[in-house]
Amino acid sequence: MKLYQLHSKQSLPITKEKAWEFLSNPANLKVITPEHMGFNILDGADRAMFPGQIIQYKVSPFPGFTTKWVTEITHVDQGNYFVDEQRFGPYSLWHHKHFIKKINEGVEMEDIIDYKIPFGILGQIAHPLIVKKQLLEIFKFREQKLKQLFGSVESIPNQLELKSF
């Protein structure tokens, strides 16, 4: 079974505190997810983020297919990073690290997602045709939405890459 990794970096001209306030609020995930994904939080986003927090969503990764997605916040270093891991959902493995680092122009946000696709060889075939394309689209949408909400640091190019192991 292949392991995939999505790595994204984006710089925003805001304070670390403002970035943390927005990114650590699970309710804001809906704001930065494309509307066509039908993303809805069902439970668990009514409190400030804490280790052990379970958040339940419904999402439609492609037309005609809706699934429940349950994640757990496993690590929180207030103001610096948090980790969410899938407990139930569309992936065999989903481990998402969110880092926020102060830079001269504001903050650098870094996402590192390690994931596996279910269904063996069929999943590996579906990855470049559906999953990779979808994830890149979601993170490009997020980049644009965050630029729209907070501006951008034009002197630092954003990075988005996906690789497999």
Identify the CATH architecture: 2-Layer Sandwich
Strand order of the largest sheet: 2-3-4-5-6-7-1-8
User: How many domains would you count in the coordinates?
Assistant: 1
Q: Flag low-confidence runs.
A: none
Give the ordered list of helices and strands: EHEEEEEEHE
Helix content: 10-25%
Average predicted local confidence, pLDDT: 93
Strand content: 35-45%
CATH class: Alpha Beta
Shape: globular
Largest sheet: 8 strands, antiparallel
Got a strand count?
A: 8
Helical segment count: 2
CATH homologous superfamily placement: START domain
Cα-atom radius of gyration: 16 Å
- Whole-Å distance between the termini? 9 Å
GO biological process, one term: cell division
Protein name: Cell division inhibitor
Keywords: Cell cycle, Cell division
Brief descriptors of the model:
Alpha-D-Glucose-1,6-Bisphosphate, Chain A, domain 4, 165 residues, eight-stranded antiparallel beta sheet, alpha+beta, 2 helices
How is the topology of this model organized?
Blueprint: E1 4-12, H1 16-23, E2 40-43, E3 54-62, E4 65-77, E5 81-88, E6 93-103, E7 106-116, H2 120-150, E8 159-164
Antiparallel strand pairs: 1-7, 1-8, 2-3, 3-4, 4-5, 5-6, 6-7
Short description:
This protein is α+β, with helices and mostly antiparallel strands and 165 residues long. It has helices at 16-23, 120-150, and strands at 4-12, 40-43, 54-62, 65-77, 81-88, 93-103, 106-116, 159-164.
